[in-house]
Amino acid sequence: SAVISQKPSRDICQRGTSLTIQCQVDSQVTMMFWYRQQPGQSLTLIATANQGSEATYESGFVIDKFPISRPNLTFSTLTVSNMSPEDSSIYLCSVTGTGGSDTQYFGPGTRLTVL
Amino acid sequence: AQSVTQPDIHITVSEGASLELRCNYSYGATPYLFWYVQSPGQGLQLLLKYFSGDTLVQGIKGFEAEFKRSQSSFNLRKPSVHWSDAAEYFCAVGGGATNKLIFGTGTLLAVQP
Questions:
Q1: Where are the beta strands (DSSP E) in chain B?
Q2: pLDDT reported for residue A36
Q3: Mean of the per-residue pLDDT values for chain A?
Q4: What is the model's pLDDT at position A31?
Q5: Which residues of A touch B27 (CB under 8 A)?
Q6: Which of A53, A92, B12, B93 is the residue whose CA sits 20 to 30 A from A79?
Q7: Binding-face residues of B in 48-87 toward A, CB within 8 A
Q8: How far is A15 from chain B (nearest CA, A)?
């Protein structure tokens, strides 16, 4: 499986600011996803990051709040904009392989605390 | 609607005892089923998956799961639990062109010495 890294691993931010989270994969992958895991909760899909086109957002998530970039097949970023304490969560990226695998592999996550 | 139910929020077992974590799903098409484990402060690690074929699948760390279509279940089992198995376990269902995964709410496993 691919090796996935995320930066930063954790951060503490002030409300009203923005944070960009990076997801780097050691091989080319077909699909990349961004999830949110609120404290004590399960994972919720934010969006699918499409290479060369706009991300596809799930219901309840909008591009203005969570802009996503995917410039190539190994890298994506998620920005959490105009943060509030309710944005305090773990943000995880996941990937599927170039072979069309339906299995998702997850990065280690970014733990965000908004004060 | 597509969904995953993990009825047990929290389970405590003694080290060496057997374990079964329950997972029920609702999915319109043939499901792809997954179990992931999340240790404290860590990302998700894939334990095992079921796409088709043999309904009993083996995974890492001595875990196995059985797909029962008639019961819409995909329960996770381990014959003898180790203290290092203490973690949160997530069942997920997905598949199709979008590859989207729907996660259950998770089961937190505690292991008593």
A1: 3-5, 10-14, 19-21, 24-26, 32-38, 44-50, 56-58, 64-68, 73-78, 87-94, 101-103, 107-112
A2: 97
A3: 92
A4: 87
A5: none
A6: B93
A7: 49, 51
A8: 23
Using a CB–CB cut-off of 8 Å, the residues of A that contact B are 1, 4, 31, 33, 41-45, 48, 92, 94, 96, 102-109, 111
In this prediction, the residues of chain B whose per-residue pLDDT falls under 50 are: none
Token representation of residue A87:
């944005």
Q: What is the largest CA-CA distance in chain B?
A: 45
pLDDT at B40: 84
- Any A CB within 8 A of B101 CB: yes
Beta bridge partner(s), residue A78: A21, A68
Contacts of A112 in chain B (CB under 8 A): none
* Residue position matching structure tokens 């909008």: A62
Q: How far apart are CA B52 and CA B70, in angstroms?
A: 15
Nearest to B99 among A44, A96, A108 (CB): A96
The answer to whether B105 contacts A108, with C-beta atoms less than 8 Å apart, is no
Q: Are A8 and A113 in contact (CB under 8 A)?
A: no
Segments of chain A scoring below 50 in pLDDT? none
Candidate from B36, B99, B106 with C-beta closest to A31: B99
Interior/surface letters A12-49, b for 16+ CB within 10 angstroms, e for the rest:
ebeeeeebebbbebeeebebbbbbbbeeeebbebbbbb
- The pair of structure tokens assigned to B3 is 């969904």
SS3 per residue for B24-45: EEECCCCCEEEEEEECCCCCEE
